């Protein structure tokens, strides 16, 4: 997963994001939306529970930018063991694919 740019001093490696296009495994009914998904992984001290704390204002700024890009919060998976990377909370966003 690529690491987000950190121009405002956001904790390096604390938030990672990836985008993937999901092809349905079954034929969709005409008119049903197809979705584009993006995941953001929050690691370290989520909301100040440990020493690698996230700045809430920076997190809100990052999520505001995702909202401007059309991403909608879909799901949060808390405390996930992630293969090959630091464990964390997985935040899943979605937006409709253009027709």
List keywords for this structure.
disordered N terminus; four-stranded antiparallel sheet; 33% strand; 1 helix; single chain
* Helix run count: 1
- Strand neighbour order, sheet with most strands: 1-2-4-3
What is the approximate shape?
Answer: flat
Q: Structural class, judged by helices and strands?
A: mainly beta
Give a description of the structure.
There is one protein chain. The protein has one helix at 56-68, and strands at 15-21, 35-42, 72-80, 88-96. Helix content is 13%, strand content 33%. Strands 1-2-4-3 form a four-stranded antiparallel beta sheet, with no helix packed on it. It has one domain. With 99 residues, it is mainly beta.
């Amino acid at each position: 997963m690529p690491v987000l740019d950190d121009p405002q001093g956001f904790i390096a490696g604390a938030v990672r994001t990836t985008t993937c296009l999901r092809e349905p495994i079954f034929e969709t009914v005409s008119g049903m939306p197809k979705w584009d998904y993006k995941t953001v992984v929050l690691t370290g001290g989520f909301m100040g529970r440990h020493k690698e704390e996230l700045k809430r204002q920076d997190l809100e700024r990052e999520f505001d930018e995702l909202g401007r890009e059309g991403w909608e919060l879909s799901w949060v998976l808390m405390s996930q063991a992630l293969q090959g990377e630091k464990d964390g909370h997985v935040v899943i966003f979605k937006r409709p694919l253009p027709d």
